[in-house]
User: Fold these one by one.
Assistant:
Number 1:
Amino acid sequence: MEHWDGKSCEDLAKIARGLLGLKGYLTKLLQVTLNWIVEKTNIGIFPRLVACQLVAAIPLPWNAKLVAVARVLQVTGICLCFSHDRLLECRCLHDLVQFESMQAIGHLLTGAIHDWREIAERMPQPKAS
């Protein structure tokens, strides 16, 4: 993107934050729904509590996808800010640092670089004229 600016990065960061927030919202919605259903069957408080805690503890398949999309958006924002000398102002990097450990960030960026190299290698090369 030729005209990459802080507003564009802020927009990517907002989308990523929204997706990460949605992950928690969906889990909470599932917990509330399960609690309501189990309560209607007159099952005791302890089994309901255990069931709701299991819903929170077991990763849901769509949650992993939401997190993956959010992280790809953040890494994209970071790379674009870096390429436009805006890394210190990068909202995507700020969010990632705020919510993840430095080790996790290193793994994320290293993995992204590796994946992007493979994508570039798979792209068909233009034919020489």
Number 2:
Amino acid sequence: MPFDADKLDFKRGDVLKAADLQTLRDAILRPDSEIKGGVGIDARKGVRGSVQLTAVQSLGSVGVASGDITPRSGTTPGTGTVSVKRYDGTNLIASHDVDVLNASADTMTGGAGITSGKYVWIGEDADGNLWVAPLECV
């Protein structure tokens, strides 16, 4: 079933009319309206019809352990430093060093959580902590 909001087509520089804004408001508050996010956009609708759009950026990086990274002990994460690598189109080149946390209690052959020189994946959690996962075994 088409809605009045389906007819709206705004372009840069258009003057917004009160009637257009009311149409958008009505469409958002309509109980059966569906709010969808997309690539990089998280969309949520509250019980009273309020809509929240948030940009989502989920990035990770490749790095190399700069020294051994300790394993987790109980609920205490392991720690270490990683040299972040950047891809220049041909090679992985050094970028900068970061301190990281390791959630795994597993160890590699030498006893470290992640042995120095091994490639890792670095991800950031919602609190801004950087966590590693090994990309190589042994």
Number 3:
Amino acid sequence: MTRDEWIRHIEEVTGLIRPARINGCIPDEWQEALRKHTAEKPECPVCAKWRAERNRKIREDVYSLLGLTKIKGGLNGIFPD
């Protein structure tokens, strides 16, 4: 899921247009709508997928910054280069 797909989902759910666009809402309203959506539907499948992918990318970036390599195969794991 791309960031734009997630933003479209939030726009559909909240009925607001993100602040970065022309005629967008006020940033505080956007943040409040996000908090409300998260509180009302913590198990939203679209948001859960977005969070999982975002966290995976962050985790893999940290691994690469630390000089670790993700290995798939017989010895699955994360090892130093």
Number 4:
Amino acid sequence: MLMSFFTLFLLLAPTVDDFKKEMAPLQSAVDGLISSTGAQVLQRSRATYIEGYGVIVFVEIAFEPPQGIFSTPKRPEEVRSTIAQRRQDVREKFTTFVKQRIVTTNSIGSTESLAIVIHVLNTNPADVPNLPGQIQFTAKRDNPQQVAFREF
């Protein structure tokens, strides 16, 4: 009896093969979500599975392109307003995304987590000096509706 329970548990446990199948669609979804906010993906997302923790996805973005010599300069208020709106969009969209993906991603075990780590490049530090360098979204599979949000 105990042996059959153990075998069943092993069959239901997430595997590396599960993660390999889910990795590319997960990365594409993260990149697409970033792009849908108007922010730029500077370095495409990369997902990794850490046994005992779960899945972590890293991506590097810029909320606003740098003001260059060939573009029409924007007023600082306009840059701050655009970045604030995109930050809010990222927060709302990724909170919803993590809630949905944590329950549908087979490679995440019942006690494991999903984390999205967004590295932010501040391309306009004179206009937005207090922009965080990193934004994190984390949820555990056993409590998918509680998404932790942190900015550093």
